Amino acid sequence: MGGFKAPHGGELINLYLDAEQSVQEKQAAGDYRNWTLTTRQICDLEMLLNGAFSPLDSFNSKADYDGIVENMRLTSGVLWPMPVTLDIPQSLADELSLGDSLALRDREGVLIATLKIGEMWNPDKQNEAQKVFGTNDIAHPGVAYLFDYTHDVYVSGELKGIAPPDHYDFRHLRHSPAELRDYFVKVGWRRVVAFQTRNPMHRAHIELNRRASAQVEANLLIHPVVGQTKPGDVDHFTRVRCYEHAIKRFPEQTTMLSLLPLAMRMGGPREAVWHAIIRKNYGCTHFIVGRDHAGPGKDSNNQDFYGPYEAQELVQQYQDELDIAMVPFQHMVYVPQRAQYMPDEEVQAPDTKLNISGTEFRRRLREGLEVEEWFSYPEVIAELRKTFPPRSSQGFTVFFTGLSGSGKSTVANALLLKLMEIGGRNVTLLDGDVVRTHLSSELGFSKEHRNLNIERIGYVASEITKHGGIALCAPIAPYATTRRKVREMVETGGGFIEVHISTPLEVCEQRDRKGLYAQARAGKIKQFTGIDDPYEAPENAEVVIDTSELSPDLGAHRVLVKLESMGFIK
Ligand code: PPS
């Protein structure tokens, strides 16, 4: 086993002040500028303070950052593959001087740490993306985060820990690196193999873990990431309940479950090396690297960003420097002739392989279809079904968009009545005019105000959807970006069906039910959609209805048929 040196070895960094110093620093922080940490930053900070990122003792300095980006090394020469930086907006940086301190707080204002600013710089994000992730493609979640959410200034300096971020969920499953090391010593686990995951565990994963721990004669640590994973992943609450079921499938006292508050970057090979270092810090001696480790999915051309075993290759390349041994594993498939799981490439004809892809598995959940016992355990499936009920019992939003007078409200009303006729569901109509009376009475029709109006509608619709209800929205919603944001918001908790009421402007203007077009033409109303304000027509609406060709009744019926075909109503 290559570079494996000593179990539970290596110095652990601890950046927490003692009680007395902590009280003093807390008092001093009253005069510091505050920075409210993002979710990613809270994860990174917790891992820095408790030594999970040892040997890092703060967010990266400029020199360390450059070394990491260019050749995966700190200025000390130590291997470190992933930047861990603190980003703040330019506006805040402009108000700070070197030597000032920042109070780093969580969203409730609780002081987690302070940072005495030694350096501030504007990173070259294009270069960072290219070198760290090997791409500038925004389809890569790490790149998207860097370009869309990372502020423009990085700061570094002396970091002082006050209090670990609070976690109110699964407290019994959370351990610091020191706690896990101590535990392993206490129970006499001299060899510990860690399994990293961001997905629910099914039988393939459990078989892989069994084989890995048997192969290296080690106890097993199931070490799932519960900080930040890939957007769209199963939420960690559901996953942890699944892991708690899964762990019962291992012989008692051989296996442990502990939650890792890491913010993943989905950086494939570099991330695998990073994960290995982190697991060494948690006292593990071995680390499983499977197929497509920390894979970011497909790029904009539908190609894989990294090869399936590239992560294993990079860890192998640095194995001698890593104080933890890799246990490489192939993809596991089910072989029905042998009624067992086997590594993909070990299966030989006439034996055959069975596998259910993630997409197929989600389809079966969505449609309430059977999932065979060879794939997973009934209690794990039951847990997932609670979170992902079939579409027919999920909430959804029908979002009508179109010009004033296009017939949005009329078709939405007709749909409302048809849904009430079917019965059994709670339906709320958020009509444009109604919302402007109740939710957005202070707003006008500037781009900023329209966006705010639509975001409010989206928020209410997403809450209704999450709680299993039906929201019908009928604003003009002229801007594509805002509609996309609403879709993202709603889809986290149920279905989103966009209906473009595409009635042409001439027809809307001819109808002019409220006399607004005449006033807009006469210049008495400004920024009127279609006249002197743009309407960006949807390109991928689920349904398109032109009410100059279709009656409201038939329009509503068309939406109903779509809802049925998508499985949202029975
Ligand atoms: S938006 O753009 O989505 O926020 O608009 P919305 O909330 O749907 O409000 C549209 C209704 O407000 C009336 N109205 C205007 N519409 C467009 N542009 C301007 N400048 C404007 N001023 C007032 C109009 O009656 C719209 O109602 P509908 O039902 O769409 O005809």
Provide the descriptors you would attach to this structure in a database record:
single chain, 570 residues, alpha/beta, Sulfate adenylyltransferase, Rossmann fold, five-stranded mixed sheet, 20 helices, 17 strands, 16% strand, globular, binds 3'-phosphate-adenosine-5'-phosphate sulfate
Q: Would you give an account of this structure?
A:
The longest helix is centred in the C-terminal third of the chain and has 20 residues. Helices cover 37% and strands 16% of the residues. It is globular and about 80 Å long. The chain starts with 18 loop residues before the first helix and ends with a helix. The strands form four sheets. It has a five-stranded mixed β-sheet with strand order 1-3-4-5-2. Helix 10 packs across helix 11 and helix 16 packs parallel to helix 17. It has 20 helices and 17 strands. The N terminus is likely disordered. A hairpin with a 4-residue loop joins strand 11 and strand 12. With 570 residues, the chain is of the alpha/beta class. The protein folds into three domains: 160 residues, Sulfate adenylyltransferase (Roll); 217 residues, Rossmann fold (3-Layer(aba) Sandwich), CATH 3.40.50.620; 175 residues, P-loop containing nucleotide triphosphate hydrolases (Rossmann fold), CATH 3.40.50.300. It binds 3'-phosphate-adenosine-5'-phosphate sulfate. The site of 3'-phosphate-adenosine-5'-phosphate sulfate has 20 residues, from helix 15 and helix 16.
